[in-house]
Specification:
Length: about 400
């Protein structure tokens, strides 16, 4: 079976799953890049050099148009419809990996030109073997606006590299006794990522004289505002600000931290830092605005979730976890288990292979395996801001 992925480019969030697929399929697996890597990502410390991978190369049209049509299974992500049309018209099994379409509000689905285009590019193919891989809990709600991929929506996401360490090895519990509880936030400091919410909530812990310290890693438009807030509120001894750093160093910080904060609103399609922090054994507090939150976190079992912008609730949760070491450790241990056993690149590749094996034996009419949770389980509709937590 020839399996081809067509994406805009390889990233550190695509590589682990792609590598797991290559290990399963060998030279029958191909990853085609349609664009060059974004300069902004390079400046953020992202890994960018995948040229040594034998299964990765640039898309060369029109030669690769035939490769895409002739492959047994194709997954598309982040590419123009021109790369997809021929495959769909041929009626061959395909998977479209998508984040939210309407991050700025679902009302934008009603724009006439955009609505008609969605009908032509998605809804038209509802009766073909083309499945929607939903990279985020709110993707199905967006596709409900025009009925795209109805009854063919599956949970998906980004699968980050695993540290392959035991939770107890990661936490090194004895060496941490007596030290402050360490809280971490990382990312681009954009308005919709709301880093200031995390620091404002953290400020309440300092008021209560908690033994805590916060580290904020990143840069962006909100950097100056954040620095000013920290200075004006006397937090310089309690909050450390650091610039972007290589991904490997961020993971080290995560492994040294007790609590990880994800404060983004609904503009955050997925939020792969949640995967990484959970794999690092952190007790994660995530805003449900992030597309990954409802897929990865079961509240009070393997992490905590809160409504984006609700600084008071965030502060309460932070204080609970700061005060209760056993709760922190329990959430962190279960978080690590979730990523290593369910939302891992190897498990995702194994599940994807089972689908491919079904197709090989039964053709495109094969019934997909039904998982109760995790990758390739059924993606239900969740309206932004409506689910009760």
């Amino acid at each position: 079976m020839k399996v081809t992925f067509v994406f805009n480019y390889m990233t550190q969030h695509q590589y682990p799953f792609a590598q797991a697929m290559y290990e399963l399929f060998g030279d029958d697996f191909l990853f085609l890049e349609t664009e060059d890597f974004e300069e902004e990502r390079k400046n953020m410390g992202w890994d960018t050099d995948y040229s040594k991978l034998s299964y990765v190369r640039k898309y060369v049209s029109p030669d690769d148009d035939k490769v895409v049509v002739d492959s047994d299974i194709v997954m598309f992500g982040g590419v123009h419809f021109l790369y997809i049309r021929q495959r769909l018209e041929a009626g061959k099994m395909s998977f479209r990996c998508m984040e939210r379409l309407y991050k700025k509000g679902r009302i934008h689905a009603l724009a006439p030109k955009g609505y008609i285009r969605k009908l032509k590019e998605y809804t038209k193919y509802n009766n073909t073997p083309c499945y929607l891989l939903c990279c985020g809990a709110y993707v199905p709600a967006d596709f409900d606006m025009f009925g795209g991929h109805k009854n063919k929506r599956l949970k998906w996401g980004y699968f980050t590299s695993l540290n392959n360490k035991d939770w107890y090895e990661l936490r090194d519990l004895k060496s941490r006794q007596g030290e402050p509880v360490r809280i971490l936030w990382t990312g681009r400091m954009l308005d919709w990522k709301h880093v200031l919410d995390g620091v404002k909530a953290f400020k309440t812990l300092i008021k209560h004289k908690k033994n805590v310290h916060m580290t904020v890693v990143g840069n962006g438009d909100e950097h100056a505002l954040l620095a000013s807030y920290i200075k004006e509120n006397g937090l310089k001894d309690h909050v450390t600000m650091m610039d972007f750093m290589p991904a490997s160093e961020v993971r080290q910080l995560m492994e040294q931290s007790d609590i990880y904060l994800m404060t983004s609103d609904y503009n955050e399609g997925w939020g792969a830092v949640v995967n990484e922090a959970m794999d690092s054994g952190c007790a994660v507090i995530a805003s449900v605005g992030a597309g990954s939150a409802y897929y990865l976190i079961e509240d009070k079992k393997n992490g905590r979730i809160y409504k984006p912008g609700d600084i008071k609730s965030l502060a309460v949760i932070m204080e609970e976890l700061t005060d209760d070491i056993y709760l922190r450790q329990s959430l962190g241990q279960q978080a690590h288990k979730t990523i290593s056993e369910v939302w891992s690149p190897n498990e995702a590749a194994a599940r994807f292979k089972r689908i491919i094996d079904q197709v090989a034996g039964n053709g495109y009419d094969a019934i997909l395996p039904e998982y109760t949770n995790g990758p390739l389980s059924k993606a239900e509709t969740i309206l932004p801001g409506k689910k009760i937590i």
